[in-house]
Amino acid sequence: MFPWCLSRQCIIDGRTGLLNTAPLYFRKHNGGILRLLLIFLWISLGSSLARADNVLVFAAASLKNALDEIGTEFERTQPHTVQFNFAGSSQIARQVVAGAPADLLITANVLWMDEAASHRVIMTDSRFHLASNRLVIASVAREQIVLTQESLQSTLGSGHIAMALIDSVPAGMYGKAALEALDLWTDVQGQVVQTDHVLSALRLVALGEVRWGIVYRSDVLADPTIFLAAEFPADTHPPIVYPVALTGHNEPSEGATAFHAYLKSERAQQILTKHGFQPPVENRS
User: Fold this and answer.
1) Are the C-beta atoms of 236 and 181 separated by less than 8 Å?
2) Burial level of 18, CB count in 10 A (0-12/13-18/19+)?
3) Rounded to whole angstroms, how far apart are CA atoms 245 and 64?
4) Taking the chain, what is the end-to-end CA distance rounded to the nearest angstrom?
């Protein structure tokens, strides 16, 4: 027979026992309460999981250190996680055009973002400039280079200059444009070693395999073994900007939208400045 209870004791077949220490009222209703609690917890957990997105960002290699820190800061205040795929802008733009599942695209020049836009794989109304940069010559030696034909030839000698791919990667394209503007390209092009992206060029400098590297100012500041030997005048190449956009393969997730907004925050800009980037120029939508 079923037990019945008085106060905190239960009677079973005439015997007093401790089968259930709860009052009768609670015993009659605790099943329903527990079910309600479980449903509430399930709904809460489900909502939390639904909001926790994994955001995949395809970004220019030169942004690696800054974006890694920005991603960590973002994750501290959000349920979402961020993963990055860093490579040359030409490579990541082509991957997104080919259907790679990126949530955001960040390139190191306007041209490759325009290329993605022409294939309708980004949300153009989400586009803005994240930061800007300067183009420099990096060296492992503490030296100052004068950007003239005579000085460059005498200092470089038979050494080599590492640059990102001059026909497709922004850092290489900027570098060639700057050398051409200063009438130096013809003199040094035979000594140029091209790499797949700007960090590879910097690595060759750090290893001593080349005399100089044409890289971004932020790259030099990130490596204590590398020194800034010269800075190209800003008017010798197109403005170095980093366009950002949400991709247009699907409706952006809550996490992607949140990270896109976070990149505009004061904290994100502080981190970019810390890593040698400059404020964005000519923001566009």
Assistant:
1) yes
2) exposed
3) 17
4) 75
Q: Distance between CA atoms of 4 and 20, rounded to whole angstroms?
A: 9
| Band of residue 47 on the pLDDT scale cut at 50, 70, 90 | very low
Q: How confident is the model over 5-21, as pLDDT tens digits? A: 433 344 334 444 444 44
pLDDT (average), residues 246-275: 94
Is 0.70 topped by the overall pTM? yes
Fold of 135-236: D-Maltodextrin-Binding Protein; domain 2 (3.40.190)
53-132+240-274, CATH topology level: D-Maltodextrin-Binding Protein; domain 2 (3.40.190)
Asked if domains 53-132+240-274 and 135-236 share a fold, the reply is: yes
Distance CA 105, CA 121 (A): 10
Residue 83 CA to residue 100 CA, distance in Å, equals 14
- H or E segment and range at residue 140: none
For the chain, give every domain's residue range.
4-50, 53-132+240-274, 135-236
